Structures are given as structure tokens and as C-alpha cells.
Amino acid sequence: MGAEEVRLVSWNVNGLRAVWKKDFLESMERLGADVLMVQETKLQEPQLTPEMTAVNDSKAHWSFSTVKKGYSGVGAWTKTDPAAVRHGIGMPEFDDEGRILELEYDKFTLFNVYFPNGQQSDERLDYKLRFYDAFFAYANALKDKGRPVVICGDVNTAHNEIDLRHPKANAKRSGFLPVEREWLDRILSMGYVDTFRHLYPEEEKYSWWSYRFNARKSNAGWRIDYFYVSRDILDNGWIKGAWIDNDTFGSDHCPIGLDLVIP
DNA sequence: CGTAATACG
């Protein structure tokens, strides 16, 4: 039997109803994902349309915020049905905002996560850091049992100076604070690989640009969307490619991807 | 400035 090629794509759509009006289906087709994961859907179940839930041959999975309307939320379209789909990590404090989808496949577990933004207040920064803590405790339990783990989504932090256009000007803003950057160090030291950076150590490529000040036009961006994999996935030679697609529009983020070859 | 409901990113 031949090896199986799998394309995983992650995209913070900043409002699913908004991108839907901006050629989303066309982008989706062009991206060619086996699993397309989206963050910030900004809707609840009653606002889903039949078109959103029935895309081609894919099955749709959703997690909604139960505490705020039109806020947060993640989703995934899967061409192959996962063996199990889970919502959240069993901690209401971190599950209520609909930020986590766990798709369990035969050979690996895939997480789609919209990590909190910490810019609103000190409380939200604290929530963000505790969310990192709680989520990775959950994911590590699987990884440390020997299960290959893929984690993708909007991490809402740029790791190093290479990961944003204006590191000096943003050194004191949430999204590039030392305490947040240290958390991204910790993710690597826990045994995950930042796939894009691993393949392209010198590349200055971003996945998010503020809507203000024509930031995308001047490429004043940040790389805050990631595909992390547990080290075994790299060591076993599953990684065929990792990419950031700056040519797809419709949101303040662009899609990112991971191509795997699974024996 | 943009999304989706007056807050949040």
C-alpha cells in the first residue's frame, strides 16, 4: 500500500459570514485541504447556513462560544471522517469560548485552536497565559503517551524578532511580550516543532496584518499562526512541506498549511 | 480599520 498524502490547512477567517461573501469557496477549492480548520468564525449554530455545513464531500465540525454572541469559535471541514471529535479540554473556563476542536484520526491527533488575544486587559493576558498552560497540559498527555500530535491555529503571539516586521516598536505589546515569547520557547522545549520555521529558518513571512494603516499593503505583519507537530512526526519523516499563503485574501489573516506523507 | 453586535481584535 502506498503512502498517504494529507494536506492540512489553518485559517483565521475573522468572521465566517464575512469571508463567505468574499470568494471563500473558491479559496477553499484552491487550497485543496483534506482538513481545513478555521478560527474566529464569529457565529453560533443558528447562524450556520446549509452551504457552510455541506461543502462538497466534506463533513463540518464546529465549536461555538457559549458566553458571547458573534465571538470566537472554530470549525473544520474534513474529507475523511475522524474517529472522534472533541470540543474543549474538559475545563469550562477554557472551553466556554469555543476555541478548541480535537480531531482524532487513526495515526495522529489534530488540534484546531484559537488561542486568546491578550491585548484587551491584564485579565485577558492572564487568561491567555493560563490557556496556554491548560491546553498544553492536555495535549502533552496525549503526546507523552506516544500519540503523534498536530496543533494548528492562531497562537496570537509572534515568537522571535524574525516573526514580525516591527519587533522593537511592539516589544511591550501583547502578542510580542517576553512572557508570551517565553511560552513559545516552552512549546518547543516540550517537544514540538514549529514546522514553518523548521523548514525555513531565515524566511520573513507573516500570517496576520492589522486592518489599520494599510498594514498588509506595506507587509507590516506578524507570524502568529502556526503548525506545531510533536517531534516524532518530524523524526518519522512525515513532513512533506509547510507553507504560508500570502496570496489568499478575505481576512486579516492568511491561510497556512502543512503537507504530510504518512506511511 | 473591520466584523458583528457596543465589544473586540
Automatic annotation (TrEMBL):
Signal peptide: none annotated. The record marks H253 as: Interaction with DNA substrate. Pfam families: Exo_endo_phos. One of its GO terms (biological process) is base-excision repair. Its cofactor is Mn(2+); Mg(2+). Keywords: Hydrolase, Magnesium, Manganese, Metal-binding. It comes from the Bacteria. The record marks D225 as: Important for catalytic activity. GO terms for molecular function: DNA binding; DNA-(apurinic or apyrimidinic site) endonuclease activity; double-stranded DNA 3'-5' DNA exonuclease activity; metal ion binding; phosphoric diester hydrolase activity. Coiled coil: none annotated. Probably binds two magnesium or manganese ions per subunit. Residues 9-253 form the Endonuclease/exonuclease/phosphatase domain. The record marks N156 as: Transition state stabilizer. The active site is at Y114, D154, H253. Mg(2+) binds at N12, E40, D154, N156, D252, H253. PROSITE patterns: AP_NUCLEASE_F1_1, AP_NUCLEASE_F1_2, AP_NUCLEASE_F1_4. Belongs to the DNA repair enzymes AP/ExoA family. This is Exodeoxyribonuclease-3. It comes from Desulfoluna spongiiphila. The lineage of its organism: Bacteria, Pseudomonadati, Thermodesulfobacteriota, Desulfobacteria, Desulfobacterales.
